[in-house]
Write a structure and sequence with these properties.
Radius of gyration: 20 Å
Number of helices: 15
Bound molecules: glycine
Largest sheet: 6 strands, parallel
Shape: globular
Structural class: alpha/beta
CATH architecture of the largest domain: Up-down Bundle
Strand content: 15-25%
Number of domains: 2
CATH topology of the largest domain: Dehydroquinate synthase-like, alpha domain
Length: 354
């Protein structure tokens, strides 16, 4: 997989102008959803090349991450006479960067694209690392390709358009990155002050560190054969909680489900791999304070377990695959955990978060 360049902006206009002019392209296209068209495009529209670019706008939310929307983007590129030397900029959250990246990777067998993520979740996760795709047949990210953007441009300015819940949702992936890296990074993250107005400059420094952690992992294992599985920490139980919540009246944001999944999976790490109790408690109390609790009871355990058995990260239908930790940064992939142990970790969640 080609390398992608991550640019943590000092000056968005200059940095973006430099990146665009470093490409030899014939036509520039910019993909937004209706939300980023309204709130984020105006932030960069004073750049001449952006003013002249052909705009393609799709609907917001994951429900639009479909084959139909993908075909619409292909059609706009084709009718706009895009060639193999055209350039696409994806301006948006994970839905836009995933779908736009896949559209670019497949149009005329691949054109270059730049990601400008506008949510914290996409800055630290979706836009970085080359996973692109769409949902299909009721399954998330069922069709896709590993195709890195040539550049990912990150500026916390865009985060000012987000509400607290969407900031915290992305922050859960940063916590995960802290847990798989170093004590210092993890400590900085659980000390970050969300009580007063968010200090976006300090947050941007933490975002830079977080993206670097993900980049290092992806560089070693771009196609998720080994160490990239460390990025799944918190996600086996997290995805089950997310799917379960989608059937309720109050669906949870992805990052909230990951944060709650981290509580249970750090407990599993404690009983299976001796993960330190004190770090488990400190992380759980940060999550309780900032994410609240997703309510379920022991009556729901079987349903949650059923969701876990469908996780596409499992290597066989008989066992559920976990990434666990022996300590911060001490990663143990492909850990098999019994149903009883999973239920015990859900008990821990209910008792601790209650
Ligand atoms: N979101 C996890 C990964 O990029 O591998």
């Amino acid at each position: 997989m080609n390398e992608q360049k991550i640019i943590i902006c000092n000056n968005l206009k200059n940095d973006l102008e430099n990146v665009i002019s470093s490409h030899k392209y014939d036509k520039l296209f910019i993909l937004t959803d209706s939300h980023t068209y309204r709130y984020c495009l105006p932030i960069i529209e004073n750049i001449d090349s952006i003013k002249e670019a052909t705009k393609i706008t799709i609907g917001v939310e994951d429900t639009n991450k479909t084959l139909e929307t993908l075909a619409y983007v292909w059609l706009k590129l084709s009718n706009g006479r895009a060639t193999r030397h055209s350039l696409l900029i994806n301006l948006g959250g994970g839905m836009v960067t995933d779908l736009g990246g896949f559209a670019a990777a497949t149009f005329k067998r691949g054109i270059s694209f730049i990601n400008i993520p506008t949510t914290l979740l996409s800055m630290v996760d979706a836009a970085v690392g080359g996973k692109t795709g769409i949902n299909f047949n009721g399954l998330k990210n069922e069709i896709g390709a590993f195709a890195p953007a040539s550049e990912v441009i990150i500026d916390s300015e865009f985060l000012k358009t987000l509400d607290y819940e969407n900031i915290m949702s992305g922050y859960a992936e940063m916590l995960k990155h802290g847990l798989i890296s170093t004590h210092d990074n993890w400590k900085e993250l659980i000390k970050f002050n969300f009580d007063n107005e968010i200090d976006y400059k300090s947050l941007q420094i933490l975002i830079g560190k977080s993206v670097e952690i993900k980049e290092k992992v992806v560089e070693q294992d771009p196609c998720e054969k080994g160490i990239r599985k460390s990025l799944n920490l918190g996600h086996t139980i997290g995805h089950a909680l997310e799917s379960f919540s989608l059937q309720s009246e109050h669906p949870s944001l992805h990052g909230y489900a990951v944060a709650w999944g981290l509580v249970s999976e750090l407990y599993l790490s404690h009983i299976k791999a001796d993960f330190p109790k004190e770090i488990l408690w400190q992380t759980a109390s940060f999550i309780k304070e900032h994410y609240g609790k997703f309510n379920f009871s022991c009556k729901d355990y079987d349903k949650l377990y059923e969701f876990m058995t469908h996780d596409k990260k499992n290597e066989s239908s008989e066992s559920i695959n976990f990434t666990l930790l022996g300590n911060i940064g001490d990663i143990k992939i492909n850990q098999v955990v019994s149903k009883e142990e999973i239920f015990e970790s859900l008990d821990f969640y209910c008792e601790t978060m209650g």
